[in-house]
Design goal:
Blueprint (H helix, E strand, L loop, with lengths): L10 E6 L2 H14 L5 E5 L6 H11 L14 E4 L5 E5 L6 H6 L11 E5 L12 E9 L2 E12 L1 H11 L2
Parallel strand pairs: 2-5, 2-6, 4-5
Antiparallel strand pairs: 1-7, 3-4, 6-7
Bound molecules: adenosine-5'-triphosphate (ATP) and magnesium ion.
The site of magnesium ion (MG) has 5 residues, from helix 2.
């Protein structure tokens, strides 16, 4: 893979043509993730956010199953780094959830993947990698992943793992 220099843009997009390809993208990010890596996922129901999260778990050598956290807002998984998997879909009151510890400092030592991240708009750390998954009305297997990296560590991660 071609490695970009520090002047490369901190945003871009890529397309995947299957759930497995989306998991591969997640696995690359998970394998290269560092303490404090934060992936903020946005996209409609069924866009593939959980598929991406499963890939991140694979890349982190997580052995437990990653599902949508249906009744809890956050699941934790042991791996090379600890994975914090948040699903903010059912979040009614961000402030209450945050007071209850939805985002805590332990996430700075691990890797966080947040589905429906827009529901925590204004509350998330500024240094992060935003990923918006867009569906394609003409192809049910195709997704466009639009990414924007904030801060140099996430920009480097994105350039190295997402630019092909
Ligand atoms: N290119 C693709 N990338 C990801 N998923 C795909 C792709 N093509 C088809 N799919 C299918 O789309 C579905 C994505 O489901 P997933 O649970 O990951 O979505 P989600 O964004 O997490 O939805 P929710 O908002 O309900 O949590 C899966 O059934 C998957 O097999
Ligand atoms: Mg999901």
């Amino acid at each position: 893979m071609e490695r970009s220099t520090a002047t490369a843009p901190a945003s871009g997009r890529l397309t995947t043509n299957s759930a497995a390809e989306t998991r591969d993208v997640g696995a690359r990010l998970g394998a290269a993730a560092a303490p404090g890596t934060l992936l903020a996922l946005v996209g409609p129901l069924g866009a593939g956010k959980t598929q991406l999260a499963k890939g991140v778990a694979d890349g982190l050598d997580v052995t437990t199953v990653v599902n949508s956290p249906t009744f809890v807002l956050m699941n934790e998984h042991a791996g090379r780094l600890r994975l914090f998997h948040v699903d903010a879909y059912r979040l009614d009151d961000p402030e209450e959830a945050l007071e209850a510890g939805l985002l805590d400092e332990r996430q700075g030592e691990g890797v966080s993947v947040i589905e429906w991240a827009e529901r925590l708009d204004g509350w998330l750390p500024l240094d992060r990698l935003d990923l918006r998954l867009e569906m394609d009305p003409s192809d049910p297997e195709r997704r466009t992943l639009h990414w924007t990296a904030h801060g140099e560590p996430h920009a480097r991660l994105a350039r190295e793992e997402l630019e092909r």
